[in-house]
Amino acid sequence: MPIALITGSARNLGLAFVRHYADRGWRVFATCRDARNADALKAMAAASHGRITVHDMDISDATAVRRLASDLAGQSIDLLVNNAGFAGNGRMGVPFGNTDYGDWLKVFQVNTIGPMMVSEAFAAHVAASDRKIIFTISSRIGPKPTYGVVAYRAAKSALNQVVKQLAIGLAPRGVIAVAAHPGWVQNDKTVGQAALTPDQSVAMLAKIIERLTPADSGKFFDPDGSELPLITQQTAPKPYAMTHERR
Ligand SMILES: NC(=O)c1ccc[n+]([C@@H]2O[C@H](COP(=O)([O-])OP(=O)(O)OC[C@H]3O[C@@H](n4cnc5c(N)ncnc54)[C@H](OP(=O)(O)O)[C@@H]3O)[C@@H](O)[C@H]2O)c1
Known about the structure:
The protein has helices spanning about 10-25, 40-45, 60-70, 100-125, 150-170, 200-210; strands at about 5, 25-30, 50-55, 80, 135, 175-180, 220, 225-230. By secondary structure, the protein is an alpha/beta fold.
């Protein structure tokens, strides 16, 4: 039975990853920032006949990350999904000159440093598995050349470079590390606007995961499986990306 570990699995894309792999018979370690706020995930786990277990892991807390890695020592993990992300509090609304650098630190902690920390902590678990995949959810960082979401765009661009480095650093252990954009996906903020449901996005991403080979390591994928440059240009979106123009 293949085994997955998903970060940020309490809701939306993370929860959809858990559902996707558990429904296909995988054993899933579903990690979340605080299980007390993860009722949907806990209900899914309770109905899973032991296939899903829920674990607290705040990816901005080095102690929490190391603790879970240690608790799972000797456990192989075929697929580590670095899904947890944080777009920042200001989002589009912070004009140039009013940058909140405290918010920047949090955005980089969750989107850039956290996935590196989790990948380092669980590298041995992944390297001990059959499939050996670290799949990191990044972002195409917006379809248009607009000013805004600066910290998030910068943090996800830096994340792509982290993934490239993971690919190089873990190649001798046979680990495949890639990044992927999930599309524009419905979550608490984008519901009613974004084109894709979390389940639809995960179905597309799972097809990419299914056919990964070591030759793909270090690549950055669009959800249709095409390759993106590590630093994306903000140009015209693909049809599945938008139902409404995003300003
Ligand atoms: N939705 C899109 O259109 C879109 C587009 C491009 C990229 N992405 C990326 O896709 C991923 C998932 O997006 P989403 O739309 O599902 O976002 P979401 O609804 O905001 O969910 C993010 C998840 O990450 C968790 N998280 C945040 N900080 C964390 C931390 N310090 N430790 C552990 N977990 C933490 C959240 O936990 P809580 O539940 O406790 O808050 C939540 O479960 C993110 O990396 C996001 O940047 C999304």
